[in-house]
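Progress report, Aim 2. The chain analyzed during this reporting quarter is listed below.
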Amino acid sequence: MIRPRCPVPFCGSASPRKKLPRTSKQNFNPKRLDDPLTVLSGVGPATARAAATLGLFTIRDLLFHFPFRHEDYTSHRRIGELKWDEEATVSCCLESISRRPTRRRNLRLVVATVGDDTGYMEALWFNQDYLADQLTAGDRLLLRGRYYGGSRTFRVKGHELLGKQGAGLHTTGFVPVYETTARISVKRLRGWLGQCIQLAARMADPLPAGVRDGLRLPWKSDAVIAMHFPRTPADYATARRRLVFEELYLMQLGLLSHRQAYERERRGVRLRPSGELTRRFIEGLPFRLT
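Predicted structure tokens for the chain:
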């Protein structure tokens, strides 16, 4: 059976979206929503136990672990276009990188020179000195941060190495922010969802087609995807409205079913009148019945 198109313009399965990461984990095969999280790349037994503290045991649990907000990373800029105190995402090439000593014992800096066809600037990371060994000259990077024009310094808030599968998941578009724990970072949750988000298409939709189309609501699978990775704020609002309506709709159906079952089983109390009340009523009338 061919699935009809969504009744509203929406970021559903028929729409283009950012490339999501693949995985090289052996035996990776998340075909079922009730598969454990350990089928995902990067999730071993210890990590699965940490995820359980968030109530995440299966792929389904993960898909319904919705973000509490999104950060707007839609403003891609070239270096020559950056303005003072502007927060933006920049695609650039790494020219050089090194550690820079400071007088403060608890502060470590990594400084890099990055550039594109419009100019160069200095990218600055705080307390991430491992990056000096991880990144090398010639790497293509997506940097998210704030630009300070006087010193031509870009204070990096987040970065991704372009060319990696799934690049852009953390630095482009509307980026989801989730409730986390000390052992499960936001970036890790995004990576897991990037691996399994397309499994949302396997979700059954409990809303009748007439109800869904009449109210111009998207499919449940499309709504779940847009809750995590919306293309626009309007997509997110539509997705949330769809899922809230479903919750209230199913609640009303449950109450109606309970009421109907009660009425079927309820037995009325049979009254056997003695006639005393009728007699007293008739005697109290100011006239005689004929």
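The first strand starts at residue 69 and ends at 73. Residues 209-264 form one domain. These observations will guide the mutagenesis work planned for the next reporting period.
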